[in-house]
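Supplementary Methods S3. Input chains for the assembly prediction are listed below.
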Amino acid sequence: MTNAWTDIKNTDLVVVMGGNAAEAHPCGFKWVTEAKAHRGAKLIVVDPRYTRTASVSDYYAPIRQGSDIAFLNGVMKYCIDNGKVQWEYMKAFTNASYIVKDGFGYQDGLFTGYNEEKRDYDRSSWDYVIGEDGFAVTDPTLEHPRCVWNLLKEHLAPYTPELVSQVCGTPKEKFLKVAEMIAECSSPTKTMTSMYALGWTQHSKGSQNIRAMAMLQLILGNIGVRGGGMNALRGHSNIQGLTDLGLMSHLLTGYLTMPTEKDTDFETYMSTRLFKPLRPGQTSYWQNYKKFMVSFQKAMWGDAATAENGWAFNYLPKLDVPAYDILRMFELMNHGKVNGYICQGFNPILAFPNRAKITSSLSKLKFMVTMDPLETETSRFWENHGDFNDVDTASIQTEVFQLPSTCFAEEDGSLTNSGRWLQWHWQASSPPGEAKHDSWIIAQIFLRMRELYRKEGGAFPDPILNLSWEYEDENEPTAEELAKEINGRALTDLMDPTDPTKVLVAAGKQVVNFSQLKDDGSTMSGCWIYSGCWNEQGNNMGRRDNHDPDETGAYLGWTFAWPLNRRTLYNRASADINGKPWDPTRKLLEWDGAKWTGYDVPDIAPTAKPQDVGPFIMNQEGVSRLFTRGMMRDGPFPAHMEPFESPVENVFNRKMRGNPVARVFQSDADQLGTSAEFPYAATSYRLTEHFHYWTKHNRVNSALQPDFFVEISEELAAEKKITNGGWVRVWSKRGSVKAKAVVTKRIRPLICDGKPVHIVGIPLHWGFTGSAKKGFGPNSLAAFVGDANIETPESKAFLVNIEPSTAPKDKEASV
Amino acid sequence: MNMDLSRRGFLKLAGAGVAATSMGALGFGEAEAAEIAHVRPFKLAMTTETRQTCPYCSVACGIIIYSKGDVRKGDKAEVVHIEGDVDHPTNRGTLCPKGAALKDFVKSPTRLLYPMHRKPGSDKFERMSWDEALDRIARLMKDDRDANLLLKNEKGLDVNRWTTTGMLAASATSNETAWATFKFAKSIGMVGFDNQARV
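Predicted C-alpha cells for the full assembly:
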C-alpha cells in the first residue's frame, strides 16, 4: 500500500476492483465504512460476483474476470475525453511531456518489436528521446505528437464504452456510471483510493492490471495524497515483510536485485544500477545503491567481505534466467531435475496451480522437508485419501520430514502489514510438544551443514563457512539480535561529514537509519529500507503511542513504517509545484519556504525546493511514469489481453492467446483447454470465515463453513439441471473436483463479444487435513501459466465444465 | 514488553469497587451479599496479557493474548483467551470471524508436536528425534549441494548456483525469522527460493 489502512477514512471514493476487502480484510475495510459514514465517501465495486463488499457499495458493476485492463483503459479514455484530468498534477508529476522514440507503436494487439518465436519483444524502441545533454527530451506544452500524453491518448482511443462492454460484459450504462463517478476525483480536492488484491495479481498480465489503475490514479492526481493511493491488500500477515527482505529468487533485501551471469564482477554489477537522473536536478535515490549493497554484503559476510574481493560478490549465486520462480522450480521438479525441497509454512499442493502436476513433481523428489505448526496436505501428499488425494503411496519414493514449528503466539518478532508498518509482537505462550521456532530450525540445519563443510570440505564452502552468524547462542538467534542486524550498525567510527573531528556513530553502535550507511565497508545493514527499525533509541517497532494529531490517520508514534517511518509514499505530491497542499483540509506536507513540514515524514529531501525536485525520487525521471519505457516485458502501456483460457477471443487480435510474452512450458501449453471443450469461466476466492488452508484446522471456523462448494448462477443451474445444495463435478483440462453447488443471484451471466458467458466461483479453503470436511480447491483446476513480469499464476481466470454429480468418496468408503 | 497500563489490575480494582459500593448503595441484605461472594472471579483476572498481532491477513489487527503462566518468568504458559486490542489504531478492538477464533488455531487438534519421518514408499509417518532429523537433513542437503552446485558457467564465470534443492519460505514468519532464513538460503547458493508473494 502506498497509504495506510487508517488513511482510507480520508477518501471520497473507494474503488474495490480485483479484491473483496469486506470479506478478505474485514477490519481494514472498517475504514471504508468510516469514510462513508463521516465523509460521505462512495464505494464502487467492480467484480464478477456480487460480493459482500458489493452488498455495502453505492454502485456495483459486473465484469468478466481477466478483462480489467479494458475496463480501466476505458475509464482513462473517458476521463481524458471529458477533460477530467488533474492537469497541474499530471503535467508536473508524470512523464506525460517526455518524447518517445520514433520506432515505437502498437498494432493488432502487439507493441513494436514482437518476436513470435521467442515470445518476447525487442524493447529498444520503447524509450525516450535522449538529448545531447544526456537528459530525456520533453515538451511541457504536450503538443509534440510523440510525447507520452499524445501516445497515451492514441493508445486509449479504441477503448470506447462499447468496446469495454463487448470485452468485459459490463453493461454500457453501468460502465459509464462508474467512469463518471471516478472522473469526479480529478478535482484537486477530491480523492479516490484503489483497494485491490489477488483478483488483479493472479493473471498472466497481473502487473499490467495494477499499472492501469496506477496510471488512472496519476491522471486524477491521487497518488501521494491523503485518502488516495494504490493500495495492495496483501494476502498474508507478513508477505510484505518477506518481499521487502528479498526472500525471492530474483531479489536481495530492500529491492536490491540478485546478480545475473551478465554481472561478471562487483563493478559490472554496479554499473547497471547507478541510475543516473534523466532530468536535471533530480534525486534518483537509487544512486545510493552501492551504500546499501556494500552494507548488505557486510551484514552477510562480515570481515570476509572486503574492498579487495569486491565485497565477496562471488559468494552470491548468479542467475542464468530471470528467476527460479515457483513455476519454473516445479517444472524442473517434474522433469526430475530437483532433488530436495523445503516447504516452510507453505502448502504448495493447494496453493499452486495444476495440483496433479504439483503432486507428480513432489513425487519425484528425493527428500522434502516441511516446517509448519499445522498438518498440511503437502506434508502428506503421499497419503491416499480416496477421491480427495488419489495417489499410489507405495510408488512415491520421496523421503519426508515433517518438522513442527511454533505459531505466532509462541514467538517474539515483527510483521510488516500492508501499510508497511513493522509491528512488534511478544511471546504469549509455550510451544506445544517439541515444536520449535523456525529460526532455531533454520539455525540447526545451517550449523550442521557448516560443521560438515568444516570437517569434510566440499563444493565452494566459503560463503557458508564465512556467513556472519554472531549470536549469543548461535543455536537460536533471538528476534532482537536479528532485528538489530537488519537495522545495521557502524563497523568503525563514522565521522560527521560536516565536522571530521566529530564521531557521528561510534563503532559497534546502531545506525540511526539508512542515511548513515556507507559504501566503504564501514557499516553493515541487513535490509536498508528497514534501517531505523531498531536503532540506539531502541525497538521502534514496539512503539505504542496511538496519538494522531489533527486526526490525519498517520499515527507516526505507532510502531515503525518503512522507509524512515514514512506513512504515505510519494507524499510530496500532496502539494502543488510550489509546495502548497492541493487540498488544505487534507494537508500532508507543505513547503514553508525553507523546508517541508506537515503530518508525515517527507518523501523527499526535507530542504529540496518544490520547483526543482520531483516527488518520485526513486525514479530517474523524478516524476511518475505513464509510459514505462522497456521496464515491463509486455508493454510500456497496459493493453487488453485475454486470459490463456478465455471464453472469448481477443478483439484486438483474434489469433492471440493470453499474454503474448508470458512464459509457457510445453507440457502446460498442451494442457490448456478451449472454450469449445470447457465453456465456463472459473475464478477463485476467499471466504470471510476462512484464512487460506489454516482455519480449516480450527473447529469454530470449520463449523462456520464446513463444506467445499462452488457458486453458479440460477441461469447456469437451470441449463445444466443443477440443484442448489446438490453435488456437482467441475473439471478442467487438468483436473476434476466435486463440490456442493450454491445456486445464487450473486453471479449472473454476462454478454461478452456477443455471447453469454457463465461464471463459476470456486472458494479455496479445503483439503484433506483438519477439522472441516474433506474437499478440494480451485488449484486442482487452474492453469500452470504465470504473469509475464513476475510469474504469479493465472489462478483467477481459467475454463471449466460442470455437471450434476454424486458425493466424492474417501479412502475408507472406496475400499 | 509494553504493558504500561495493567488491564488485569484495573479489572480487579473495578470489580471490587462495584461490589463494595453497589451493595451498600442498594441496601442489599445478607443473602444478596452471600450470593455476590460466590460469584466466580473474572476468569482473566489471573492471566498474563501480551500484546500481539493477528497472523492472518495483512491488516495486522492488534490483539491481546491472555495466558495462564508467564513465559517471561520461565513459566509454561497456555493461552486461555484472545481478544482485539482496543488501543490499536487500525482495528480498535474489533476482530473478524477469523481473528475472533484465533485461540482455535493456537490450540488446534492438528497442531504438530513432534518431528515425523516418512520413509520412501511408506504409508505412514513415524516419530524421529530432532537430532536425527536435522542431522539427516543436513547430510542430504550437503550431499546434493556437493554433487550439483554449479561453480562456473560455460564461459568460466563463477556462478555458484544450486538449483537442485529449493525452498519456499513462509510469509507468516516474522521479519527476524525471515532474515535468518534469507541468510541461510542465499549463502548456500540456493536460487529456487520464493515465498507466497508470487501466489
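The domain at 7-106 of chain B is CATH 2.20.25.90 (N-terminal domain of TfIIb). Residues 22 and 141 of chain B are 69 Å apart (CA to CA).
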